[in-house]
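Entry:
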Amino acid sequence: MGKLKLPRLLSDGMVLQQKKNVRIWGEDEPGRTVTVSFLGREYNGEVNAAGEWEIHIQPADACAACQMLIRDDAGEAQRIADVAVGDVFICAGQSNMELPISRVMDRYPEEIQQCDNPAIRTFKIIENAEFHGPLKDHKSGEWTAVSENTFPEFSATAYFFAKHMYRMTGAPVGLINASLGGSRIESWMGRDMLTGYEEFLALADRYSDDEFVRERLELNLRQADQWHKHLDSIDIGLKERWYRGEFDLAGWKEIEIPFFFKDTPLKDFCGSVWFYREFTADKRLAGREAKLWLGTIVDSDTVYVNGIQVGHTDYQYPPRKYTIPEGLLKEGKNTIVMHVKAEIGQGRFTDEKVYAIFRENDRIELSGKWMYRIGAGCEMIQATDFVNWKPTGLYQGMMAPCHKYAAAGILWYQGESNTHESAGSYCDLMERMIRGYRAKWEDDLPFIYVQLPNFRVELYGADRDDVINDWPCVREEQRRALKIPGTGMVTAIDLGEDNDLHPLNKEGIGFRLAMQAAKMLYGKESECEGPQIEEAEVSGKEGVWEVILTFRSATGLYADPEANLEGIVPDKRNAVKEIRDFELVDDKGKVHTTTAQIVGNKVLLTCEDEMTIVREVRYCYHNTNAGAMLYNQEGFPMTPFLVEINDRP
């Protein structure tokens, strides 16, 4: 086997960063001379005693369909085909960055017809945590251009970002996708970035013990397997084969789907519940393939139509979008049975989602009355130890091998998992990570990130106020991170879905990310952010208070009563017509509502409550908005904020 080796990132289809010195590196026999030939130039370097070499090539302009030849003086050579030069972005974070196009395809059905673009490419780094130290190379991954075949697996956020960047610049876009659902910010940070966070470092040390990790992973599998096997063994529905839809309904009870278990006699229930419904299909649907959508369900489900399984999902987050195969639906009466398992007493059928069978213009609504019966109750499932989320693991196993690869900037969409822990430290952690990454890349890379969108955190089933308040707390920490030079933030308070941790509007996110990048990299003069608080001037006296709020990026300020209404049923839409999301907080921590009036590019707040002093002014400091949202003339929303009076925003 040859001695000349290249890292996985340096491979066919790669995108190199334009207008920067680019490092080409690899391994070879010590003492050899390596030559890189690219764009008509040759560059030489020596292999050091450790068997490593690095060669820097001169800045190049954007181009495509190039080749690179790497050879040594011993006659070994490697040719890299289809090289492009453009802008490279590190796309990192958790599930909303990782979420593939396949999960949002129904929202963008036309996109697959126009997605082919060899200038947009991705390198997906497969999930890998490493606790022994930073890896030099990735264990897997390859460059892929977007096409009809590859499109479904692209990160939706990253793809739409690249689509809009390419439209604005015409330069190829390379997306290095280092993301993992559920991951926390500390898992993407190196040990040097976590200095002083002793609990995180102790965890990283604990998980550097391979035997301990092996035991934890085996325990995860064993506990889950035992729980499901035990539940199945006592499930009367499985024993009596309720999934066939042929049984006496005596003992079954009515319930309205969708619903939260906590609002019914199933509150805190752990175990198996069966749901049954009859429906009528006309001759237009009979025998035809059809779609079956069942919102999202907590935690897992198996679905049967006329006794035949048509879908199964193991965990709560994926949308239940199943297919009823051709020949299964009958004209007249049909049955549907859902076998649902609730693992930790927080079961639900998520509200304001689609529950229906449909094909073209034919549709059978499935929300409403169902029959249900408990199959078996049991103890709560044991918690899973998500090893790969532990501090330093993803940084060392996925991010560190990227540091030698020149990039234009970093895109970051994360924070949901830190709403449970370290919420108040999130700004500090972001600053440490950003400075740490820039030091490792030896480049002050622009860092553009997404502020957490609207979402009802109570969907987690949490009743504690501190958990509910952590969501806006992380948003505020993210806003404060704008103090770090070279950062840009996408406000997304209007792009989420109150009932879904994984909102579908990824094009909106991608567009706003691209607008930020275009301004930071290309000096585009168009507005790229919404109104940002600059000053809060309080006046008045006890019983009558006025606050004048001054913003930047607020030209043409207006309130949009139709914003953030996706998924809201018509009879609830009137609730958001007024501006209701500004609040004052007094010195005792009591929250006071205000009336808000737009005055030019400012907002005047008036409050007639009894309070001795105003300590804080807040906007959208809740899980989601309660009233009309504010925008500038370019259509970017005002950023949620919490401002302490007498402090600069």
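Residues 461-468, 567-573 have pLDDT under 50 and may be disordered.
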